[in-house]
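Q: I have 298 residues here and want to know how they pack in 3D. Can you give me a structure?
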Amino acid sequence: MSDTGEEWQVARRRKGAARRSNTFKPCSTAAACCQEQLDVGKTVKRIRETESELRCEEFWKDWKEQLLVAGSASLSKPPENKKDTEVSIDQVEKGRDDRTSQHLECVCYGLGSFSSCVSARFQLAMLLLLLDAGQIPLKDCSVYDPAFSSGERDVLRELGLTVLTENEEGKRSATKPTLFYLMHCGKALYNNLLWKNWSTQRLPLMIIFGNSFNGMRDRAIEREFKRDYRYISQAADMCEERALPCPSRLIDVFSDTAVITFPSSSLNKLPQSAWTEPHEPQYQHCPDLEIIQREARS
């Protein structure tokens, strides 16, 4: 594995250390040297077995229900910037039909090396369950992690997912209702994602399955958190968070996970000035940044 991949894994282990249980051993980078020669068929089979295991878990029903509720609310939003008086009956009916046939897109960052890490394999299996429950076509789910080996990328393509080739650093615009699946990712990645979608039009399009914003804030020094992660800090005051259940044996896999949405009515909690010309995060005060930044092009 490259140095970049190793750094990513170290970051994942470090930020998850406080939550680690004895159920799963931490992700190992030692096994990474064998990932390039993965048996794709056997790896896919293991993932499917894990998927079946999770499907039988009681807590999965709650995750599924929360996705369906959030997805339905996001997809049922009427078109933006159109007055009723300007829309004909035919246009209204067409819009309703279009929204009925719509589905969420999905973006997954930071999954980790699922061929050598049990926790990452469970997280991938959960992603596949959510895609199935939300009727999201596999090809409409884009995944990226600098830790992926070429063999793991082959596995993901075999599963039908779209593997991104560029490190977006989380800076992905939501142009339609989108599920962002970010299991135990670094704060900078969440902050970048929020910055890229920092408007009253785009935030309501986002559904995040990831770590609680309030939890991040509670564990940080307030002054530093507001300075370094201003978008998470502001979002925590206006988003809706619904904690997701997690059995004790999977505490290292799904702990502190919530469904995070941004109802349009809640965005009014911020003054208009908060939406004007949002500045791109720089993180000059964060020497221990939990994200792998893409290399600057010469």
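Q: Anything worth noting?
A: The mean pLDDT is 83. Strands lie at 105-109, 141-144, 162-163, 178-182, 206-211, 240-243, 257-261.
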